[in-house]
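Progress note, project year one: complex with adenosine-5'-triphosphate.
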Amino acid sequence: MGLLAVEGLSIGYHTEKGLLHAVEDVSFTVKRGRSLGLVGESGCGKTTLGLAILRLLPENGTILKGRILFDGADLLEKSDEAMRRIRWKEISMIFQAAMNALNPVHRVKDQIAEAILTHEPETPRETVRSRVEALFDQVGIPRSRMGDFPHQYSGGMKQRAVIAMALALRPRLIIADEPTTALDVIVQDQILRQTRRIQEAFDISMIVISHDIAVVAEVCHDIGVLYAGQLVEYGDRESVLQSPMHPYSRMLLGAFLTVGGKPPRVPDNGNDSPDLMDPAPGCRFHDRCPMAEDPCRQTPVASVTVGRTHRVLCRRVA
Amino acid sequence: MELWRYLWRRFIQIGITFFVILTILFVLFRIAPGDPVTRMIGPEMTTEDAVRLISQLGLDRPLWIQYLYYVRNFFTGNFGYSFHYGQPVIEIIWDRLPNTVLLFTSSVILSAVVGVFLGKIAAWRKGKRSDTLMTLGALVTHTVFLPWMALILIWIFAYRFGWFPINGMISEEIWLDPSAGLWIKALDVFHHMVLPLLTLFLIYFGSYLLIMRSAMLETLKEDYILTARAKGLKEKVIRNHHAAPNAALPVVTSVGLSLAFSINGGALTETVFSWPGIGRELVFSVSNNDYPLAQAAFLLISAVVLVSNLVVDLLYAYLDPRIRY
Amino acid sequence: MADGFKTRKKALSRHGHWIERWKEGWAIYKKNLLGRIGLALLSIFTLMALASFIPPLIDPMYGPMSGVDPAITASTGPSARHWLGTDFMGRDLFSQLLAGARVAFTVGITSAFVSIVLGTLIGMVAGYLGGWTDVFLMRAADLIMVMPTLLVVLILAALFGQLNIWSIILIIALFRWPGVSRVIRAQTLTLKERPFIDAARVAGASHVRIIFRHIMPNVLPLSFLYMTFRVTAAINIEAALAFLGFGDPGTVSWGMMLQWVWKTGHMFKAPYWLLPPGICISLITLAFYLLGRAMDEVLDPRLRKEGERY
Ligand SMILES: Nc1ncnc2c1ncn2[C@@H]1O[C@H](COP(=O)(O)OP(=O)(O)OP(=O)(O)O)[C@@H](O)[C@H]1O
Ligand SMILES: [Mg+2]
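Model obtained:
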């Protein structure tokens, strides 16, 4: 039994034009101390998934069906107050837009201390202070900058501060949404390694969201590939990287692995992302799939187990 | 330090602005039809007095020297004599200035504080009945014609119910009574101030409410609010500690920009309520062709607006660390 | 703020003929209840303004300014003969109220139009030329922005004597352009960076041509929006001026009516005289204000998405 089990989760957004099916029937588990990477192109529903776990979807977003079991209890059934207590204490999140994730009118250290004091109000001031200092040390920001305001930080420092904040309460799960996209490659690498070290040291589970399979391949134990809201492939790192089964994962990996070599041509039938407003009942990838047949479009697909922990959402694989 | 640089720059800008206003007024007084000398020398003055004043104001000298005299006289408070009162203008101004400042600052502060508070609540309850009510209320009171609002309030609360005095700032009998303590006097002033203050408040809180409401709605979409939610903060903390301080910034800016409007309203209110302030004095002096007084009143009102602008800047700098550091 | 301009820019640059744009805009406007109320109020006031020509034709005693009912020597309440009653000289209040609508529209629209034209021109020039021109114009704008318009008009009235309605309109306009010009300048600055301006320059278009052919069409909707807000300011300033006794003695404006009821000591005795002009000034202000807000929603898609109705 994993720490987090997402079962058959579907999420929609109410828009002017109707319901947008952003996430469709997604299931995965995150085990204790392990990390799951979710990859997929822009708009495939990664952030939506992350927000849904914390029940922080925007006003127009709704969870249509499914369960989110955390420690065996369904988060969707918790009261608002119970959910508030879980946030950050149990599950914290590193947001995609780390540049704006810090409040401009408060000092960085206060924003971190606030998280501690909210969930552990009895902590003495001195302890809070030393804990914040320790966090700054861990993510590599000089202590002398603790009292700064966010605008005085560089982008990389803000990113680290956000990571420090996510670690403040030693949560059991951290959802990291594109933790490094805004940074240059060297800093990106540094931060990824730091994150991974901390995660291992404190036995924290993680969901790492990225559009870049290289990032996910570097830090994650398990990998899930999302396409247009569907989890098309899911399995442990080795299986997915070494024997990707879904045509979309193969395309992604092809682009990643064949650096230098000739990447396989991505068939682009003119329509890149499928319409999420009124998706066909079948596989959402059929438009771009080189192996697509007629039934792919119309018949709902079920996921196929191809290994002990490896599942694929494709008729052709079965 | 950044803060000082910012404030210093604003201070200089405001100083220059005032100087330009001073100069424009000088020019206007010279190019207006009629004799500039008769605009400063009252018709009832004795010849000796007139001659003395003319030389004091430099009215017998070339224009540019007149200008220098004019600037010097402004800073030494020598504005000549009021035609109407026959007193030095500066005495009248000093007597009226505190009353204007009292009414103006209390009305601006009251309407801004209440407006910001209600705007915050309205945004938080967006779409609910209380929000609709507050927003509509703000729209309606904000667009009422100010003097009319004043007349209606007088009619209802002073005339019909008799709760408040119809006009003025003090009751003679209380102020002449030697046994009346300071508190009684203060209370008396307050009693007179309720309706003028209410008028200005009703007219101006609405605009602050509307600005705060939309600033707050914008702020609530910011990423750091999502962070605050994810941190498991209580809704009230998110609203008051994370959203409101950011949303208040544009409101502070708009308070600064609307000070000039507020002083217009202040002058109207003073006139309707016979509140002995500079605004009313300006209106009177214009009716009476009391040029020296009109000139000084206008300059002092401009100074009040500019100084309060500076105060608003200070407040802004205090609220926004991006300026402070 | 900057964001607002960005989205506006997007909204404004949507392709399509202007008729299409109007249709599209109207479709959005129609959904706004308060905007519709504003329009309805404005139509009523327009009807009043048009109707103001009728009473004097029926009987000269209904002339708003000079018509006096010979049978009446003091202010009287509403009757069949005088729907809203008469003032202290026996002049018909209803005809005065109708005439006031005409004055309000004249003052509001003319003055707003002039200030918008000025503000748009100055904003475009400052934004397009940049440099010292920009600095100078914007400093001037700052300066004017801190001057209390009403008091400025008062001082001018003191110096230049009784102002007639057209000078009042002009002065208000001269002191009301800075707000618009700031917005238009910001808009121009973003437009200036767009490729089609460069293309025009490369093609040899003169500055004047670029400003009027390429920039102006893109900022006009915004100017138009600001015009509605300026109308309310102008109407209110004129009313306040008239109320204080510095209006054009040859016109009957609502502010003037209020001055008469106040100065002749009728305010506690004659609600039929005190209420209508005040209500009219307030409502016409509200109407233009609602119109402006609804138009803002048409021009700024962000407001729409969030489903703002107020
Ligand atoms: N508030 C919203 N209202 C309507 N639709 C939304 C909203 N937020 C996201 N969507 C839509 O839901 C889909 C998934 O969005 P999501 O933000 O989860 O994508 P993502 O995978 O995180 O993309 P990216 O890599 O660009 O961050 C997209 O089609 C997006 O347009
Ligand atoms: Mg995302």
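Chain B touches chain C through 56 residues (CB under 8 Å).
Residues 182-220 of chain B form the longest helix (39 residues).
No further modelling is planned for this target in the current period.
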